[in-house]
Amino acid sequence: MKKIILIIFLFNIFTYAQEGNQSVELPDFVITGNEQVKLPILKKKRPKLITTLSQEFFLPTPDAGSISIVNFDNPLKKQIQLKKSEHTYDGKLIVTSGMYTLPYGKFIFDKNIKHVLLHLNVYGSNETDYKPLAGYNVSGGEAAVSFFVSKNSKFLPGLKIRTFVDGYRDSYHLFATERKSKRETKGGNAGINLEYKLNKSANFGINGSGNLLSDKTSGLTSNKYTLNAESQLSLQNVGISVKGTFIRLSTKSNLIKSYNKNYLNATATIDVKSMRSFNAKFGTVVSYFGSDLFLSPIASFQLEVDKNIFMFAEYNPFTQFISSNDHLKKNRYIDFNTGQYNYIKHTSFFKLAFKYEHFKMFEIGAGILLESISGLPYYQDKSFSGKYEIFEISKAKRNGAFLSVMFHPNYWGQFYSELTFSNTRNEESNVVPYYPLVSVNSVYTYDFKFGLQSEILFDYYSQIYSDISNSNKLPDYINLSLNLKYKLSSKVKLLLSGNNLLNRDNFLLNGYLLKPFEVVGGIEYRW
């Protein structure tokens, strides 16, 4: 996966917990069938106890660019930024080519004109066959316009408005099928986001978007419309937050009867800071889907137990509504005739974690997760046809634990590693397919004084079953990769990366072999 997360455990787990739960993603820890795992180098950022409206809420990540990306989501992990962004340019062009990548290109343009910010992103990639009909071709783009009202304006000072549209098309073969049938899909998003900060303690936001998915072979057309609203009030010792999400899904295809589904979710929380070292949050979550009403209390707290030692706990049941649009981003080889949507209820969700920080140069953390899930979806190729059907488990249990270590003294480079144990089982105590029992994600970065940036990544996933009866287990997934970037000038950098350096036969889905050892080189130009 070209852009999978570099993780922070803890602080933001609780501060942004409900925001994360509103996103339409498959349950955490799930393994799906796309390519490489990569942890980006990012900038470290300390969270606030009472947050403003989240960046993800107003600047949602476009679906198009993540079509060929694997997500290994983990509820004990959150994003951390280790290095400052270099986004000080108007334009950037990246062109690369490799043993099986012929070629890859990306063009980004950003322009700030007084109170208006223009953004354009166009990309394309062609992966050739490393085995018969295993290639993948994708292209797409995004355009966005952001408008900012001056804080000194007499009319709606501080108002932010952003409109965006993106789209993609891709083509590939289901090369594990007997017929090796070709699939061509198209998709896109369009929407508008508004954020208004009334004053230092009160702000409000609303966004609306539409998502389209079209599959030529099955005749599937799926439209998902989403409306989010959020308001926050932060006083001296108390913060109040109210959030709501409405989703309408409209789907039709050649083989399945057309249908419309509605999903509604709302949360209300009170954040109490009794002292500098303690913060607690209490609230309620309610969801409505069909005739099902879900209602639960939620609570969390964070406490500084001793100097540089922190404790976090959270009880946070929630629901998710996912569609074919979301399944395809997780597994491009799904059978569109099954599992058109899933309503998932995390009826019990408890997390406990500890963190030790030493002078902001060394951090170590550990935590546990206990969860009960109703309606958990999973993938399985029962007929060994190469198409993955989507099944559902009425009741599932998941117990997890993690240990993470981070070193970030700049003169020694920066290192992050996390070991995760996750045990996800159905009522018969069988392990759910494609949920690894053990996973390790590590990244080490070092910047040489002569202009060379280096990044070494290691990812390991073990104990992965491909069927619900647990009769077939995939070989361990091990991927060692290297990324190098050499600065020729202030505008030009040379790029070189190697993936699957151990040249292993890696699988993330049974029957679908991932790319062998590959070297990719290219150039990055900024202006």
If you had to describe this structure to a student in words, what would you say it looks like?
- By secondary structure, the chain is mainly β.
- The chain has a single domain, classed as Maltoporin, Chain A, CATH 2.40.170.20.
- Helix content is 4%, strand content 58%.
- The protein is built from 4 helices and 31 strands.
- The chain has helices at residues 11-15, 17-22, 55-58, 324-330; strands at 7-8, 78-79, 91-98, 101-113, 116-127, 136-148, 160-173, 182-197, 202-215, 220-234, 238-252, 259-275, 278-289, 292-306, 309-315, 318-323, 341-358, 362-374, 376-380, 389-393, 396-407, 414-425, 438-447, 452-462, 464-465, 473-474, 477-487, 492-499, 507-509, 512-513, 518-526.
- It has a 22-stranded antiparallel beta barrel.
- β9 (202-215) and β10 form a beta hairpin.
- The longest helix is centred in the middle third of the chain and has 7 residues, at 324-330.
- The protein is globular, with a radius of gyration of 23 Å.
- The two termini are 28 Å apart.
- 37% of the residues are buried.
